[in-house]
Structures are given as structure tokens and as C-alpha cells.
Amino acid sequence: MKSQEIAQRWIDFFVKRGHTHVPSASLVSNDPSLLFTVAGMVPFIPYLTAVEPAPYPRAVSVQKCIRTADIEEVGKTARHGTFFQMNGNFSFGDYFKEEAITWAWDLLTTSTADGGYGLDPERLWVTVYEDGDDRDAEARRIWEEKVGVPRERVIGTGKADNYWNTGQPGPGGPCSEIYYDRGPEYGEEGGPAVDETRYIEIWNLVFMQYRLSAVRSKTDFDVAGELPQRNIDTGLGLERLAMILQGVENMYETDQVRPVLDRAAELSGKTYSSTEDPEDPSYADDVRLRVVADHVRSALMLISDGVTPSNEGRGYVLRRLIRRAVRAMRLMGVTEPVLPELLPVSRDAMAGVYPEVAEDYERISRIAYAEERAFRRTIASGTARLDEAIAEAKGHGANLSGEDAFQLHDTYGFPIDLTLEIAEEAGLSVDTEKFRALMAEQRERAKADAKKKKSGHSDIAIYHELVEEGNTHFTGYDELVTESRVRGLIRDGVRVPVAEQGSTVELVLDETPFYAEAGGQAPDTGVITGDGFVLEVTDVQAPVKGLSVHTVTVREGELPENAVVRAAVDAQRRHAGEEAHTATHLVHAALHEVLGPEALQSGSFNKEGYLRFDFTWAEALSRATQSEIEEVTNKAIDRDFEVITRVMKKDEALALGATSLFGEKYGDTVRVVEIDGAWSREFCGGTHVARTAKVGTLSLLGEASVGAGNRRVEALVGMNAFRHNAAERALVSDLTEMLRVPADQLRERIDQTVQRLRAAEKEIDKLRREQLQAASAALVDTAEDVGGVRLIVHDAGHVESADDLRSLALPLRDRLGSDAAVVAVIGVAKGKPMVLVATNEAARSEGIKAGQLVRSAAKTLGGGGGGKDDVAQGGGQNAEAVPEALAGIRREVAERG
Questions:
Q1: pLDDT at 78
Q2: What was the pLDDT predicted at 124?
Q3: Of 321, 310, 299, which Cα lies nearest the Cα of 603?
Q4: What span, in angstroms and rounded, lies between the C-alpha atoms of 733 and 893?
Q5: Rounded to an integer, what distance in angstroms lies between the CA atom of residue 276 and that of residue 337?
């Protein structure tokens, strides 16, 4: 049974039982605590946690998911993959355990002819929650009495395996898992407690019925009571069921993944043997083939959902997936570009379920291929840096340091596997223990940072309590001053009755004119006043839908809950921000006009006088293109179009061609901002000027890359743009006066001046080198005999760079003839001393190595260095130690000589 049919049977089964089919949400999660949609229930979290009312009592979905926490395990077992699909059925205060359990059994065991999956009921095992006296007796009773599963195949397990919670205070409850027995050839008999390779989990039924508090760990928490609304959340792994129904060994061999694996094997000349045994000679290549098949599919799906490669967040995960796939192919001997061969295969395998990957393939492939090209350049530059590190390590008589390996990985994106491979070819090992320690430190820093940023469901509990009292009504579309009431005060996550002078608290009003940060628009600021108090508003956020939370500092008096207030937005700042927001829409439309509709928005930010706009585009924009975009935008400003806002049904807006930000979550009713009809029509909840002429003017500052396949333009707006242009005019005026030419001849005169300066610099450099060569000839006579070695130590004084030292030392060494000779030169460039030592073959045969001499001298200079035995260089911080460093070189030569 193909994956597409598995998904359709799932949907059909539950739709017949009153469930609303909810299409898969984006892989880009709306939950601020998650990078990706990591489980089928993620899009339903607001309903399951009662933050928002569910729009339907029952739902069914086949949800795209990405998990990369155990990316290093991908390919090693049948259980680890990054992209997967989770079939889910959900109840929001409707049915509960009996229906969830019996329906699961019916769908799995009903014959394929009757719409089920046709699994043998004798091969199914189930687990239920049982932890001492705390047990889910109801679930066991249903399984044994209603379904008829023999008692010996209903296994009780504890909290670690069969109790679900978010890891934070909130909903929780027992769960029940269904396992499939793959047969004795896969392991020991005795159920999932004995062998989870033979008995593979396919379906998890979660019964959310309790409210948890003080969650200390997955297994240590307090149950505060029953939930007012009991929910069902189940998840069946589509790939795991496909593996069983298609009779293959693991998820990598299913119909949506195997075609890529086969093409990778063909390209690399490897034979896939399906082994999971590390002792098998084919294991390493089999793992690599599985990595390629998994990662290529994951990259395809992520790019399809609007993610582009970058060095942070989601973009970094995508970048890592692509580069791991390319690296795995390289380790199998394929050094040519591989994505043009593999990505189309994955597209064809996935398009049946997700037609958008074929429809949008031009954009997807452009981004993916650009990232592979970038990685190939990385490999080239990283290899050059690795060659230097290897040469230095050999010069020191040491192996490659963990610090070097980490720098290659962290700075150049150079995979540790390639570092190990190339180092081994050079006869060196790598300090992998130190490398792993540095990587662990980096991961801990990342975790700590993520923990700081994570909002978590416990953080919004207090906001949920407030929103239950009613949504905050936003009046800011029509007015900037509103009379309102203080509904709640929050300090450190706890509601308080009063806020004292000097304190900073969060404040919720019944009505507010303050715009909460959203859609790229910065939040409003301003002042809230009342009877005996003055508050400064510094931030406004919407932590849950429908609630505006103001961060305020009490400047005067004391603020009590329920106080009547006058909320006043900083009008000047708001109007300037509106200019920037409308300009953002104009830039977006201009990009579409100049570049085409494939220049899709991937992010934006606007505030008073400034905007930035991110969009998908593979190449840098030329100056001419930037000028055209700026001109189109300013023409729209000059034509004074009306900025029309309309509220309509989402389907109606889409039918009109309104654009939306990919991954953003919209309700059934949306606000659309329109400028010049279809030229600019976007979903937008922000605030805008009434007519485009109010923007004033826009000055494009430039564009830059923000990750492979993604560009960013930045611009100044209104008075900021005017001041910027005025400053540039003043600069042009100063230059024309200084160079005594008209403005229209300024570029030509500057070009001529620059050419003359470059010619002068070349002449100066030539003269300096001639002087160095002349000095070299004179220095030959200063050579002294030190233990049979002709030695020149020289303080060159001020030099431009290490090249000057090299130009002086190497000719000197050659002039000293074939007898053992050493030349050591130290100069000072930009206040810092540099040392270069050159030895000839006769000196090296006597054990005198340039690298060793440089290390000693550099240490005296307060620095470090190294290199090859014949030529080495280093540097330091202490220029006053030059005489001591030269004396040290003389001493070492004497001792060795």
C-alpha cells in the first residue's frame, strides 16, 4: 500500500466518523517555543490547551513534521528520521477513551477491501499507564473487554513511557501505545518491554484529562485536578505503518524515500544492503545512503514551506541537512554536484501527496542548488585552511588540534568527517575529544539561549486567565487616545493588585489604541495616565491571541487594578511607523514588478523612518536593479494612491490574489491592505497611512544576502530618507569643491584620482622592495659563524607586512651559499612585531628547523607562530622584546650547531 493511499484511508475513516479534515499546517511552527512543527498535535495546541476555542469538536489530519534533535542518529536505525508524517485524530471535549481505542483497533485490523489497513490482530500489542497504585484501569478495561486484546498483550508501563505532558504546568494525562510484532527474525519474543526492534510502536493515544502543576521532570509532577475539557490527541507514524504494509526493513525503504536512496547508490556505485549491523562491512555506506535519502526529502519539504538556508534558526537546520547529504555523497566518492540528480527524484516521490513541491519546484531547486554550490566553495576554502593547519601541526611535530577542527567546523562549516579523512591521508590524527568538548560547550550555549527565548505554555497561563475575561479591543485603527480600564497587572508572571512608583509591570486594558508588535510592525509606545499616576509604555506584545499586554514603568504615583485610564499613543512615532509600513508594501510590490512574483516575502520589519524586507532570491541585485526598485517605489508614492483596508473572508481574499506571509496563521476573516488595486494587495493587520504620498520619499540603502537563496533590502523612509539624501548631496558638494569639477564629472575625476593613487602605491612598493634587495646584499657581509652555521639575525625596523620580511630573508638565504645557513628577520608592522626564519637544506640536515626557531622567538615577543622546516613565520605583541628574541635565535642556533 503506497503512502498516499495510507494517508487517504486515514482521512476517509475519520471523516466518516464526524471529524473535520484539517490540511497539514506548515513545517514552520507558529508556536514561538518551536522552530518547527515537531508533532501532529502542534497546530492544535491552542485548542488542546484551551487558549483558543476549537472551531470543530473533532479533527483529523496528516501533518508534516520535522525533528532534528537526534540528527546524528539518522540512518543508523529504522527509528530515526528528520522529516516524517503524523496521522492524527483529535477530540476537543467531545469523545474520549472508548471511541479513541476502538476506532484505532478497527482502522488497523479492518481488511483493506473494507477501507482498513488489514493488520493481523494477533501481531498487535498495546501498553497502558500503570505505575504502582496509580494506573489507567479504564484504558486496560476497554482494551481487554471492549476490544478483546488478550491480557498478556496489554502491558502496563510507568510515567516515563505512558504518561504525556508538555514538560511544563498545563494539560497532561495517561497514554496508550500500539505496537506491531514484526516477527521472530527481528528479535526476542515477549512484547515491547523486551525488544522494541521486533515490536515497533505505530500509534500513540494520548488521553488529556488532568491539569498538572509543579512539573519537575517528565516523571515528577503534581496533579492539580481534572481538566474542565477532556481531549484526545493521537498520532500514528505514517512512515512506520508504510514500512509494515510495504514489507520493507525500515522507513528509508518506503515508497516516498527509497527512490532517492536508489539514485544515490547508482551515482556512488554502491550497493545498498539494508543492514543495521555496525559490524557489517556495508554498514557505513548503507548509513550514508539512508542519510542522503532522508535529508534530501527533508530539505525539499522545508524549502517548500518557505525556509531558506542561513546561519541561525530554521535556516541553519536546513543548511545542515543539505550539507550533510552532500557530505555523505562525497564520503562515498561523489565529488560532482548531487542535488540536481537527487532533488527531482524526491520531488516526484512526494508530489502525489504534496503537489506544491512540483508546482514550486523552480524556486525550491534554485535555493537548494545555490546552497550546494556555496557548500562546495566552503569545502574548497575549508580545505585550504585545513592544509595550513596540517602544515603547522607537522611543523610542531603534533597532531591536528581540537581547536583547529572546531574552527573549521564552526567558522567554515567544514564537516568533521572530512577533517578526519583529510588529516588521516596526511598521516595525522585529530584531537576529537577536545573537538567534542568544544561542540558540547557550543550546544550548551545554544540550549541556554533557547531556554531564555522559550515562552513555553506555562508562561501564557496567566494571559489565558486574562483573555478568558474577554479580548482586548484594539481601537488604534481609528484613534490614538482611548479611555479604558486596567483589567490586570502582572509582575514576574503573577497577577498583582497594585504597581508602585518606579516599578515595571505588564498591564492589560479592556480597550487599547496601542498596536502590539505583529506582522513586522514595531509596537507603539506612549503614555497612560489616570487619577494620580503616570505610566510610560515601552512595549506592547500579544502573547496569546486576542490579548494585548503593555510593558509599563510607573513614573508617578501608584497604579491599582481596575483603575480608569487615558491611554495615549505617541502620535509622531506612530505616524512615522505607518509611513514605513506602507513603504514596506510598496517595496514588496516593486520587487514583484521588477523581479517577478517568485520574489516571495520571507520576513520584514518596520519602525519609524526605517524598513527592512527579506525575500527569496538567489542572486545579488545589481545597482541598476536596486535603482529600478527604488524608482518604482517612489513613483507609487508620488502618484498618491489611496491605501484601502478591507475586512473579508480569507477565501475571498485569496481569490482576489491577496498575498500572505508563508507560515503565518490566519483566521477565517482577514484584513487586506490594497494599493492601486491588484498591484499591491496583502493580508495585513498593521497600521498604514491613508494615501501613499504621506510616505514622503524612500531611499534604498542597499541589499545583502541573509542566507543562500534569501536577500534583504533596507531603506529609510520619510524625513529619515530626506536627511540621508541631504547628507549625500552635501558630500557631493564637498567633493566637487575639493576636486574643483562639476558634479556630473565627479565620478570620472574620482576614478582618475584612485588610479593615480594605485599607481603611486605600486611605485612605492617597488622602491621599497628594491631597497630591501639592496639591504639584502649589504647584510650578507654581516653573517656570523655560529657553531659552523652561517647566521644572520636582523632587526628590519618598520615594515608594511610579512611579505617585506620574506622579500628580505629568502634572497639573503640564497646568497649565503650551500653551507649551513639561517636567516632570521624581525620587523614591526602596525605596532606589532613579526618574525620570519629561513633555513637552507644544509642547516636542516643539522637539525635546525625554521618552525622551532620561530616558535621560540614568537613566544619571547608575546605571541605564537610556526610553519615548515625551511620557512616559518610568527608574530607577537611586544615590540620592545625584538632584541631579546633575536638573541634567543642566536642562542638556539649555537646550542644546536
A1: 62
A2: 96
A3: 310
A4: 62
A5: 28
Distance CA 31, CA 50 (A): 15
Q: What are phi and psi of 94, to 5 degrees?
A: -105, -110
Burial of residue 733 (number of CB atoms within 10 Å: 0-12, 13-18, 19+): exposed
Angle at 307 between CA 306 and CA 312, to 5 degrees: 150
Q: Would strands 698-705 and 710-717 be described as parallel, antiparallel, or unpaired? A: antiparallel
Return the C-alpha cell found at 566.
487615558
> 243-276, pLDDT tens digit by residue?
999 999 888 999 999 999 999 999 999 999 988 8
Phi-psi region of 735 (alpha: psi -120 to 50; beta: other; left: phi over 0): alpha
d(Cα 491, Cα 549) in Å, to the nearest integer? 12
Sheet holding 680-683, edge to edge: 643-649, 669-675, 680-683
Task: Using pLDDT thresholds of 50, 70 and 90, give the confidence band for residue 73.
Answer: confident
Q: Pairing mode, if any, of strands 498-499 and 710-717?
A: unpaired
Q: Are residues 58 and 19 in contact, defined by beta-carbon separation less than 8 angstroms? A: yes
| C-beta of residue 616 within 8 angstroms of C-beta of residue 709 | yes
Cα 212 to Cα 227, 318, 456, 523, distances in angstroms: 9, 35, 14, 34
Q: Which residues does residue 179 pair with via DSSP β-bridges, in sequence order?
A: 125, 201
Q: Which residues of 375-405 are buried (b: 16+ CB within 10 A; e: fewer)?
A: beebbeebbeebeebbbbbbbeeebbbbebb
Burial class (CB in 10 A: 0-12, 13-18, 19+), 560: middle
Beta bridge partners of 702: 714
- Adjacent-strand bridge partners of 556: 534
pLDDT in tens, 735-770: 998 888 888 888 888 888 889 888 888 888 788 777
